[in-house]
């Protein structure tokens, strides 16, 4: 009888450990730019796995609409109006996150970004500054600000939403590509520097994904065909196909993965020309 009870208890404990490895229950997360596109999908993915999520947007109405929808779905999501390109607003955002989550943060997803597509010789100084500040400086600064909160949680994870533009040359503009290349390198440096603080850092690098940032481009049938021709899987990606990887990298199940840049690209970056049109 005792052996049977012990076996059941052991099985229950094993099942509980297995479940907890694939759950974010009890964890806290900050996702920047969470009201549309990949960021929106990430918020829903993390919240669906049990995390309490705070997100931000420059647009108050858009944020309020999303928060209302998430509440109706039973997700624990709060939000702030914040333009991550403004240093003072980043400071305020992290203060709000610290207050909301009692000084501890498990997950930071640096998702917010922007782009201006032009030939290199046509970029203005203002455009250079906008892209650099929004894509690179904001993410770097938020990591600095969030570090004490992530360390205090005892198990922190940072995920950058980068781009394959930081891995290979594509026609997205040299400044955008430079910011993503820098993000990929910061991923490696911080992974080594902050491992002692039990903080893991990884980057997810998408190819073309159906989001508002590129929807105007994908409406051009000639442009879309060029993208599809370069992609072995013969299609562009969906936001949920990126958010699932982001969520995985935040799970306890991914506890030995850090410093990695993982492409979500339908095989585009490994295609040496074997897979083209047809």
What does the model show?
GO terms for molecular function: oxidoreductase activity. Keywords: NADP, Oxidoreductase. The protein has 278 residues and is an alpha/beta fold. 48% of the residues lie in helices and 14% in strands. It contains 9 helices and 7 strands, in the order H-E-H-E-H-E-H-E-H-E-H-E-H-H-H-E. The chain has helices at 2-21, 37-48, 60-72, 87-100, 125-153, 174-193, 215-218, 221-229, 239-250; strands at residues 28-32, 52-57, 77-81, 107-110, 156-161, 199-206, 261-264. Strand 2, helix 3 (60-72) and strand 3 (77-81) form a beta-alpha-beta unit. The termini are far apart.
Q: Percent range for helical residues? A: 40-55%
Q: How far from one another are the termini? A: 66 Å
C-alpha Rg, in Å?
A: 20 Å
Largest beta-sheet characterization: 7 strands, parallel
What sequence of helices (H) and strands (E) makes up the elements? HEHEHEHEHEHEHHHE
Structural class: alpha/beta
Keywords: NADP, Oxidoreductase
GO molecular function, one term: oxidoreductase activity
Protein name: Tropinone reductase
